[in-house]
Design brief:
This protein has 433 residues and is mainly beta. It folds into five domains: 98 residues, Immunoglobulins (Immunoglobulin-like); 82 residues, Immunoglobulin-like (Sandwich), CATH 2.60.40; 78 residues, Immunoglobulins (Immunoglobulin-like, Sandwich); 72 residues, Immunoglobulins (Immunoglobulin-like, Sandwich); 89 residues, Immunoglobulin-like, CATH 2.60.40. The strands form twelve sheets. Strands 4, 6, 7, 9, 10 and 11 form a six-stranded mixed sheet that branches. The chain is rod-shaped, with a radius of gyration of 49 Å. The protein starts with a strand and ends with a strand.
Length: 433
């Protein structure tokens, strides 16, 4: 014990006093309790204590208050303590830290879903003693839920981004845990197909989605060929209908994660009326006139050289006679009759055409009298862009299914008479759009 002066020269013992705050208290499982031990008298205090495991510990500090950070529940015994003026030995003081189990929670569910049937919402399962107070953030806004249930489930609709914050249960213990949890139910709008549902063979039609909120995915069951194209409005499908019948266009929306329901459009494609093909060659070598009788039905006929609409005509001059035949669906086809006098092979190639899809002069139509034909189109650099025989379809101004630029292209033809004699010709044709 340290002694000092009191009054006028009397030597007195100065006994330090001990004050513990808090004395007996409750701690949560993962808490740290700070116990303040104040020792009176001069600063420079010290103490010895034994923890709940029986381990003896010494603490020295220059001030008059010792703060112990304690994480272990149980009974603590201060066995010795003192200050710079005196000490108390073997004067035990006990205090107790009572443990309470801290609450907790687990997050499950959430994610991105394409179907409400498959969607698993965010669920928070609580651990501890009810009632619970749960705090979280949604879009930066703090929310608090109080419940006696052992879990909460967020709705399985729309989208939300959560951030957990804390949980407190009946023990009064609060645990802080930041954990993200998000949910999104993608509900793409069902598209609408805008386009013609009735047309004629060999016609071209464009089909567009009724909404531009997602990426369209097109499908064509049969009946023709198509390409997907883009313009200032969006993505669309361009179809060349080459087969008569009823065909189906299908469309889905996608955001590259989910697909909408499929919408369909049935398209009826009518056949073109039958006409005499371009190689129908007649000869006036032996006769002065030649009657031509077409097979009448409900179609209409329009002769381009006279404007007449009769089914039978009498031809008396060599040349090429063209007529247009239109059926009850409005589908038209062009027929040809080639009439010659000496029946020597002839080939006539137009010097220009305009393949712009308007149905007028869209193809490079060849005229003449020949039994066999080999016809080629070349670019200015010598690349062959097109080849056709006598019975093949005419050139539509494309190369590898893509339109060629406007400009001048060059053709070469080998055509034969009925006796097998061949003739070679060449020239140029201009594409105008």
């Amino acid at each position: 014990m340290v002694t000092g002066l009191l009054g006028s020269g009397t030597l007195m013992s100065q006994t330090p006093m001990l004050n513990i705050l808090p004395f007996d208290t409750i701690m949560c499982t993962i808490d740290t309790i700070y116990v303040s031990i104040e020792i009176s008298g001069m600063p420079g205090v010290w103490l010895k204590y034994v923890d709940p495991l029986g381990v003896s510990r010494d603490v020295n500090i220059s001030s008059s208050t010792i703060v112990l950070p304690l994480t272990m529940p149980g009974t603590y015994v201060i066995t010795q303590y003192g200050n710079a003026q005196g000490s108390v030995l073997d004067d035990p003081h006990e205090f107790v830290l009572y443990e309470r189990v801290a609450p907790g929670f687990e997050v499950s569910g959430g994610g991105v879903y394409c179907s409400e049937t498959d969607a698993i919402p965010v669920r928070i399962d609580f651990e501890g003693t009810a009632p619970f107070t749960f705090q979280y953030y949604d879009g930066g806004q703090e929310h608090e839920i109080q419940t006696t249930q052992d879990h909460i489930t967020f709705p399985a609709v729309g989208s939300y981004d959560l951030q957990t914050n804390s949980i407190r249960d009946a023990s009064g213990c609060t645990i802080y845990k930041n954990q993200p949890a998000s949910f999104q139910l993608v509900q793409l709008p069902v598209p609408e197909i805008i386009g013609e549902d009735e047309l004629c063979e060999q016609e071209t039609a464009e089909y567009r989605p009724g909404t531009a909120q997602a990426i369209p995915v097109w499908h064509l069951s049969s009946g023709g060929s198509y390409i997907e194209a883009y313009d200032s409005i969006g993505t669309f499908m361009r179809v060349v209908w080459s087969q008569p019948g009823t065909h189906r266009v299908s469309l889905q929306n996608t955001d590259q994660r989910c697909f909408s329901d499929t919408v369909t459009l049935d398209v009826v494609v009518h056949s073109l009326p039958e006409v005499l093909e371009m190689d129908t060659a007649l000869c006036l070598e032996m006769e002065e006139t030649l009657p031509v009788n077409l097979s009448p039905n409900s179609d209409t006929i329009h002769w381009l050289h006279t404007g007449g609409t009769e089914w039978s005509v009498v031809l008396d001059t060599a040349g090429i006679y063209m007529y247009r035949r239109v059926n009850s669906y409005g589908c038209s086809n062009l027929g040809y009759i080639q009439l010659g006098t000496n029946c020597t092979p002839e080939l006539h190639v137009p010097d220009a055409f305009s393949p712009n899809g308007d149905g007028i002069n869209d193809e490079l139509l060849l005229f003449g009298l020949y039994s066999k034909l080999e016809f080629s189109i070349y670019s200015a650099s010598g690349v062959r862009l097109f080849y056709a025989g006598k019975d093949d379809a005419p050139w539509e101004g494309t190369f590898e299914d893509k339109p060629v630029p406007v400009g001048v292209y060059y053709w070469k033809a080998v055509y034969y008479s009925h006796d097998g004699k061949g003739h070679v010709d060449s020239g140029a044709v201009t594409i105008i759009r």
